[in-house]
Amino acid sequence: MSMSLTRRHFLAAGAAATTLSMWPRFARATGSNDTRLLIVLLRGGLDGLHAVIPAGDPQYASLRGRLAVPDARRLDADFALHPALAFSHELYARREWLPIVAVAPPYRQRSHFEAQDNLESGAAATGGASNGWLNRCVAALPTSRALSVSTVMPLILRGPADATTWSPPLPDEVNPILLQHLQRLYAADAVLAHPFGQAMAAQGMQAGGNVARLPQAMAAAARFMAAVDGPRIGFVENAGWDTHAQQAPVLARKLAELDQGLKQFHDGMGGEWARTVVMVVTEFGRTAAVNGTGGTDHGTGTLAMLAGGAVAGGRIAGDWPGLARAQLNEGRDLRATNDLRGVFKGVVGDHLGIARTALDTRVFPDSSNAPAMAGLLRG
Asked: How far, in Å, CA of 188 to CA of 130, rounded?
C-alpha cells in the first residue's frame, strides 16, 4: 500500500415516442448553458466500502472479513471497484466516472428518515423542511424545469419551482422495505439465512428477463431529458440499500442494477451525454466492520459517484481518513471528511451556472462553512 493513503488528500481538480409527445414542452436553454443534471438517490444507506474498495488500507481485510470483495477491478494503487460495476469501470477509464470517498450530509446520526430529510432539504440541520434544494436550483434557473421519475414528488424537488413527476410502468416486485424487515428476522436463523439471501439476490428481476426498476427508471429519464424540449434537471430514486444481513449477494445485484441503469441512461442520452452529469448519492454509509449476519449496520461516511461527459473523472476525489480504529467515527464508522453539500455545490455551481452566493444562502441555507468542492467537472 502507498503510504499516502493515510489522511491522503485526493485532488478534486419505459416510455415510447408517443408518450414523449404527450409530455409538457420544456423551455430549453441553448448554447453553453444547455447542460443536464440527473440526481440518483439510493435509499437505505449504500455501503461505500463495498462499492469502491479501499484495498490498499491495511485495516480493510481484517474489518471486512468474509465481506471482502474478491475479483475487484483496480482503480489505482489504493482503491478498487466492485466487479458488478463493469460499465462504471469503462467510464472511469474514459475519465467520465469519478468516485468521491468519505462523504455525508451534515446529519451524522443513523436514522434513515432524518438522514434522507437532511440530504434532500439541503439544510444545515434536519427536521421541518417543506421544500428541497433541487427545487431551489430550478427556481434559480427560470428557464428550466425538472422531472422526477417517481410516483410521488420527493422532498428534494418539492417547492414553488416548476417540477413534475412521471411514473413509468415498472415491473411488479416485493416492497424492498418489507424485505429489509424480513431480512433481519431470517438473518438470525442459521438454516434459513442463506436461502433467504439467495432469494434477495434474485428479487427485483422479471421472470425470464433482466429488467429491474432502477435501469428502467434511468432509461425513462434519459428519453425525456434527451428530447429537444425535455427537462434539464432529473431525479430518480431506488430503495433496498439497507444491508444488515447477507450483504454480498444483495449488493452484487443492486450494484449491477445501478451499473445497468447508468449504461441505459448513457445510451439514451446520445450526444447530450457530453453535457451531462449524473450524481449518485445515498443518505449515509455502513459500519466499517462486518456484523454477525454477513451485513453491515448504519454508519456515517459513504460514497458519492459522478458520471457523465462533463465530469473530470478517471481518479479518486475526497479526503480519505483511514480505517484504523482511532481514525473511525466513534470507533466503528468511516469518518466523513467531505460535506455532501460541498459536492452538490461544486457540481450545480459549475454545471448549471448558479452563483456561489446563491448556493451558500438560498439553495443550501447557512452553508458557507461547506465550500464547493472544486475541480469535479471538466474545465
From this structure: 39
| Alpha-carbon span 302 to 282, nearest angstrom | 8
Phi, psi of 287 (to 5 degrees): -60, 150
Angle at 43 between CA 39 and CA 46, to 5 degrees: 95
Residues 209 and 60: their CA atoms lie apart, in Å, by: 36
Place of cell 448549471: 352
Pick 41-363's CATH classification: 3.30.920, 3.30.160, 3.40.720, 3.30.420: 3.40.720
Where exactly are the structural domains of the chain? 41-363
Per DSSP, 270 falls in state G
**Sorting pLDDT into bands at 50, 70 and 90, what band is 173?**
low
| Alpha carbon distance 65, 197 (integer Å) | 18
Residues 6+ apart with CB under 8 A from 344: 122, 133, 279, 364
* Exposure string for 274-288, b = 16+ CB within 10 A, e = fewer: ebbbbbbbbbbbbbb
If you search the block for the grid coordinates 466487479, which residue do you land on?
83
Distance, CA of 253 to CA of 367 (rounded, Å): 36
Is residue 199 classed exposed, middle or buried when 0-12, 13-18 and 19+ CB atoms within 10 A define those classes?
middle
Q: Is the pTM of this model over 0.90?
A: no
Distance CA 346, CA 193 (A): 43
Q: Per-residue pLDDT tens for 210-219? A: 345 899 999 9
For residues 76 and 87, give the distance between their C-alpha atoms in angstroms, rounded to a whole number: 17
